[in-house]
Design a protein that fits this description.
The chain is mainly β. The protein contains no helices and 19 strands. Among the domains are: about 55 residues, Ribbon (Complement Module, domain 1), CATH 2.10.70.10; about 40 residues, Ribbon (Laminin); about 55 residues, no CATH class. About 0% of the residues lie in helices and about 40% in strands. The strands form nine sheets. A three-stranded antiparallel β-sheet has the order 2-4-6, with no helix packed on it. A two-stranded antiparallel sheet has the order 1-3. A hairpin with a 2-residue loop joins β12 and β13. It is rod-shaped, with a radius of gyration of 55 Å. About 10% of the residues are buried. Bound molecules: calcium ion (CA). Its main location: secreted. This is Sushi domain-containing protein. One of its GO terms (molecular function) is calcium ion binding.
Amino acid sequence: MFSELECPLPHINHGSVSKNKAVLGDDITVTCESGYEISGATIIECYPNQTFGENIPSCQDVNECAQTTGGCAQTCTNTVGSFLCSCRPGYKVSPIDQTQCVDINECDVLNGGCDQKCDNNDGSYRCSCNEAGYVLFTKDHTSNYRIPAEETGMLPGDRFYINHSCVRAYQIIRQCVCVCVCVCVCVCACACACACACACACACACVRVRVRVCVRVCLCVCIRACVRAYVHLCMLHVFVVSTTYYNVFVHCLD
Ligand SMILES: [Ca+2]
């Protein structure tokens, strides 16, 4: 009896062979696990030198994200032998279908970190201030409030949490200076009495700290003229000096 020449079966990482024994002339088929693809010949033969030759196939990882993003709705990450779907900030993987993403309602947890009002939206949320006299702290120095040196304003719990905190609105200081100038001019003529009355009223409208000077010149001119007229009345006197001529003269009276 001659023993058959056997070929030792190759070890294929992440793969397997179709037989548990191979003798001279046998063909075996190599298959890969899910998530891997074969590199090389699928079928190998047992040769007289009791090997399957030098070109033993191997199983290589399949990059599922390379095509159609692995079926992930948002982000696909390839792993060795598999892949993972993940979601952008503001979304989470759906518990029903792990390739899909659903919105996170941030307002459900600690009111989204908002001081006052929290509005959820698809992929995000928004804080706002609904109490009178308050505004949203959107950046350092909002309404004159400064972020302390030891904080960034970007973390929950910061004294002024950007886009979350509400601070009192900047107080507008109104300061107006009004100046009224009244000028009265009396013009009298002839020794008559003259009286002038002058009144000024100024109004300032200021925005924030601003000094606005309002000058109003009120010119009152009172002219009172007294005219004394002297009228000379003239009377014509005609006397008959003689019967032959007439003598005419003019006599003026006060
Ligand atoms: Ca949201």
